[in-house]
Write a structure and sequence with these properties.
heterodimer, A: 536 residues, alpha/beta, Immunoglobulin-like, 7-stranded mixed β-sheet, 5-stranded mixed β-sheet, 27% helix, elongated, B: 292 residues, Rossmann fold, 6-stranded mixed β-sheet, 10 strands, 42% helix
Chain lengths: 536, 292
Amino acid sequence: MSFPAFLFLLPLVTVPIIIHLMSRKKLKKIDFPSLLFIIKSEIKIIRWFRLKRLLLLIMRVSFIILLILAAAGLKIPFVFVTPSETLILDKSPSMEKILTEDDNTFIVPTNSGIPEFMQYLKNYPGGILITDAQRNGFREILKEREKFPGINIRKVAFPAGNLGIVGASSSPGYGDEKFNVNFKILNEYKEKKNPRLVLKIEGKIIREENVILNIGENVVSFDLILPKSLYQLSLELEDEEGFGFDNKFYFIVNVQKKKDICILSDVYPEHLMSALSPSYFDVKWVKEIADVKGDFFFACSASGKNELALLQSAVPGIFCLQGRTNTSISNKIPDRISTIAEGSYFDDSSLLKNLSEFPVKYNCLIVEGKTLMYFENGDPFLSKIKNHLILPISLEENDLSLHPVFVPFLFLMISSLSEEITHGNILLDEPIFIENLTQPQVITPGKDEYKPYRVGKNYYIFKETKECGVYKIRDGKEIIGLVAVNTPPSESRLESLSPEEIEYIFGKAGFSNGSTSFIVIALLCFIFSLFLERKM
Amino acid sequence: MELLKPEVLEKIRTLNLRAKIIVKGFLTGLHESPYHGFSLEFKQHRPYYPGDPVNKINWKLYARTERYYLKKYQAETNLSAFLLLDKSNSMKFGGKISKFHYARTLAASLAYLLLRQNDSVGLVLFDSEIESFIPARSQMNHLKYLLGTLSKNEPSGKTSISDALFELLPLIKKRSLCILFSDLLEEPERVIKIINVMKAKKHEVIVFHILDRKELDFSFYDEALFRDMEDSKTVLVDPKSLKSYYKDKFNEFISRYKNGFAANRIDCFQLFTDIPYDKALTEYLEKRKRLS
């Protein structure tokens, strides 16, 4: 019920008052010889009697008012909050210089952002939180809000603007070769900003520089040369006054050695050879399957090859089926044209988006193995059988190998075959999928260890990605994977939370659920009025 | 005796008839009671003559003198009684029978009884002052006048027994028996004081304290506006919470009267409106016996 609707019910309050007045009018009149003894006793007893009548009226009126309030679903502030005792201040840069202090208030600085801020919340169960209520970081409070029922929010005006890191990407990194990491930074001020960026690898500061950020989206690149390994990167942004910002972005980079790749083809694959840049792969052309060596093979056209022999190969490979008659792994179908669906196995959405723009011609349907990607029409596009990936298309025929997305896609496929769980970058609350491990353990950024849920043979899911940071995946004693968890870009929009969102986050924390409280108090009033009636 | 219950007699509308029934019923019940012949005063002995009733012979005297003598009595005519009836508004209180009604019937009965005994009876009706004063007469036809006055008057006015009795003092010149019918809703000390003054003037005083049961036990249950019958003042009362307190106060008030009357040798009889009239008459006769 909305508040105005509840106002319409307010006249009900007059009902007990009218009853009270009418019952007084209806009182029986008794002629008595002398009020001498009554008046003597009246002083105490009659006064108490009148008080009881008044109390009864108050109880009845309160009962109705409380029921109306309960129906209106109003919320009431917690009474035990003592605002003058503690002031917990969101001192993130977005708050800029909106700091006030008076004699009765302790200001708790939260220089290290939300984690430290949360610690202060634990120490002060009652207090006022002054914040601009931006999305960043408030997820922590959102998750923990039940623990801070005494925190009362005071929202200050939204500041002039803000800065925040909303995404990161990197080019493939190979051992001791230069590669770059790109961070996307949003400047929501109405002017250029010159913040300080601090890039850390494994917690150590690698770069520290001031950058000029234009209004809107900016991409800041860092060139790195690192030996072959998995690395945890984090980029922190400090504003001009030097306050620590609560938007810290984590990123995992896998620096590996170049892959030796064999292209298995009857004829020299001219397009492919030119497409596969030497900077990504060391490429060889072989005609026979027996000649395949190295990390990986790519059969751009498996026609004329024994597909079972290909599947038996110890070297992982990708091969394209085309124009095949029905076999154990594919069925021949009339020519079809479809595009590739987004949201398949691979999570590089930008790559998939580019791929999905192509209509692709295919004439066989893969019927075996695990489908990793689909066409828009639902047919399998990419399937995995053992350690091989199978495509139902001809790269040459579809001119896919000429397209700029081909090489990253091939790289993605190769990575998926060789290092499936070594690293990843996911968003908060997304699960971590773990495959082919016998005793997986997940170590959270807070150093807590959890065993992921087993959902199939050698397949696990870890759902508790509740804090930003780097999660480590361990198999036995060995760390075999890293996953960076960041807030979703939608939460880095750097805009103030709406009143509804604030109510959602702090509604249960700073305010009690009015309806329940009102009903409980109304019941107490009702019981008390019954008690009074009995005594009357 | 069942016939003498107030609720039974209430059915007889005429006060005259009611009074007669009460007195006759009462006397019938007495039979051989020791009160017989109290209204005659011994004068002298006279010798027995044949034809005189044998049972009148004074055998004790015969034992001493060996002669027959009869006692010779003279009817007592010099007892003057005044019925003082409180007719204030508070006497209106009561259920089926109001206190005033009860007192009026009782007064009428006593008037009849007294006149039957050749006593002279007067009547005083008062509230805070004397409303009616009828001098004492001993003729039987005086009864009609008395009862007519009693019937015509209805309760009104405020109670002030002391003021009314004070006003009465100069009006009763002869030594008299004053029978007061009232609910005595006045400060006991004031009432006792004026009765003592009356006694000092050689008057005998009997007080019939007329009460209704409800006054004593305060048997009300629902909250109500209680209105003072004399000054119309109202007050909201919760009887349940007030009851015990009221009863304490009222009993204390009654006790003050009882103690005061006992200390001053004033005869007082508490009568509730549901008590048969004969009991009240008995009380009177006890007193009358002492007087004779």
